[in-house]
TrEMBL record, chain A:
Gene3D superfamilies: Potassium Channel Kv1.1, Chain A. Residues 166-190 are annotated as: Disordered. Residues 169-184 have a biased composition (Low complexity). This is Skp1-related protein. The keyword Iron does not apply. Residues 126-157 form the SKP1 component dimerisation domain. It comes from Caenorhabditis remanei (Caenorhabditis vulgaris). The lineage of its organism: Eukaryota, Metazoa, Ecdysozoa, Nematoda, Chromadorea. The keyword Flavoprotein does not apply. GO terms for biological process: ubiquitin-dependent protein catabolic process. PANTHER family: SKP1. Transmembrane segments: none annotated. Signal peptide: none annotated.
UniProtKB/TrEMBL annotation, chain B:
This is F-box domain-containing protein. InterPro entries: F-box_dom, F-box_Sdz-33. Coiled coil: none annotated. It holds the Pfam family FBA_2. Residues 4-50 form the F-box domain.
Amino acid sequence: MSCEEPTTSPTPENNITVVSSDGKEFLLDLKLTEQSETLARLISNFEYDRTDVKKDPVPLGNITSAQMQKIIEWLQHHRYYPKWEQNDIHYSTSFTFETWVEEYLNIPNNEMFELLNAANYLNIPRLFSTICRIMASRITGKSAEQIRTVLNIKTDVKNDVYTGIPIQEDSSSSEDGMSEISLSPSPPPI
Amino acid sequence: MTVSFPLLRLPAVALREVLLNFGTMDLLEFSFTSTRVRDCVFRSARLRVIEHNVEFLKEYPHIVTVFKNDDGLNEHKLEWEFVGGQMAGKSHQEERRIGCHRFEKCHKNGNIIQCHFHNPEFGASVVFNHISKIFQGPVNLFLDLSHIRNLYSILLNQNISECQKLEVYEGYNNEQNDEDLYGILDMVNIGKELKAYVTNQDEIDFDQICHLESLTLENANWMTLPDLISLNCRYGSFINHKFGPSDVNSFAENWYNSTNRTLAKMQLGWDVDTELDLKKSKLEWKKWDPKIRSRCFYDPSEPYHSNRIDCSEGYDITRSDGLTATILVRDGFECYALFLVWHDPYPEKTRLNQLRERMAEEFKKFENVFENHRGYEKYVTVGKIVKSWIESKEIAHLSFEEWKYALDYITEDTCHLYNRIVKNVNDIQKEIKLWESVDNTNNCIL
């Protein structure tokens, strides 16, 4: 999907200021905030879309300036895209992504994780869904053993040293055990 | 340096979204990675399926999990098939572990896992325990008593014995099995439907079946008229029984004097032609009046080509609450009496509306797929055909050869998607024509 991007110069009335967790301020065009359901609802509730209402900066305590920068890049790119509908994923039978999206999400796993959390917090469905699909694309077609390798999952079934027969460890272990799951630094190409 | 991705620290909604993007086989493989993943991730994700079919019908068990596709109308399946010695010929064999059980000889082919295990019935029980933990949905249990070695060990598994539907067959070799339906029903808790094609059962506990929505019994010789009357099923079918014409009359009279609004179809079969003399009935049976009901009864439990029952030869009674019932006797090769209740006196109108809505949904899917591929060079040929179908809102059969040729150029996934929509549209078109002819006949008569 590609969209023409007409050049418009944002006026101060059409902006709001958001403040990241590290105190950096970002000026956001109201048109861009439409892609975030959280911001759109906030703007609607405080009537920030009216020119006669004083707009206080919006603190985003869960989002760092680096994440905000990345999100603004996404919002700018998708500025003139049609509104996201859940149906859009229904017919995506293969994991194919725009070249721009592939480049945009060619980031370390920790940044991807933070970006997904930020997309979830700000409720940006297109970004959220795209990252989830990217994550799924790294698993698809793999066997359990290969998934263990890719996600660095430690199996909880061990073989008996004498008989070679599998012995199951206690599966009711704490949540800490689950956090051992990790993505390898160089996932296979999308 | 390894940068970890703490997948399980994702918010539940994000983790679920990632899982929903997995293919069904990917989900199954992911669940095999560790017991913790299976028990924690899948429990929180709550992935629902349409149904699980657990089949002990042949020499080896077969487990089929049916999923609803994203489009909401189509289905796809994940199958675990136990096989015999033919696994030796398969080149790519993998091991699967479920808890402390090791399934060493497994072969994956698309959405099917074929597996050789020394005790297939026990293996099926273990595999189904695993599958039912990751995918939640109702269970349909199919048993052929002539093939099962240890029936009661299967039924001891509560994941299997708590089922929505039970079908029991005795096969051809019915001397070998000592199990009776009474014992099976004692261990199985059925939610909705029972079909039992077992000839030699003496009696079953009426309380085990009286609540069922759909009931088919090959042998209902134990059943008395009070039993028949106190059933609360929507669909009933009894192939062998002790009921005679006077019992059918009593059954009809009881329905007429009751307020029962559940029953839709009751079928009583006989070995030989049975004359049902309605003159002996206290009720006033009347010949078909097109102003009261349609010619054809709609039976949703049958496939589209046989879901209409011609009731022009039937006799009707109408209750004080306005509900009409028809009694229809079929003789010849199949001898049976049908008692049909017209909850919808003109089902063709409702059915046609449903079918037209489904047709519109299918064409909406066509449009979506077409829009997604618009402009791609390799979709030009197939796109032209699809576009003409979308514009005319009909699939032209003449272009079928051309259609197959056009599909050669596109990817396998899209090809499946198009073919699935075409099949659905074709079936709907055929059923629409059948119901339209019923509607036209009614209109002509009226």
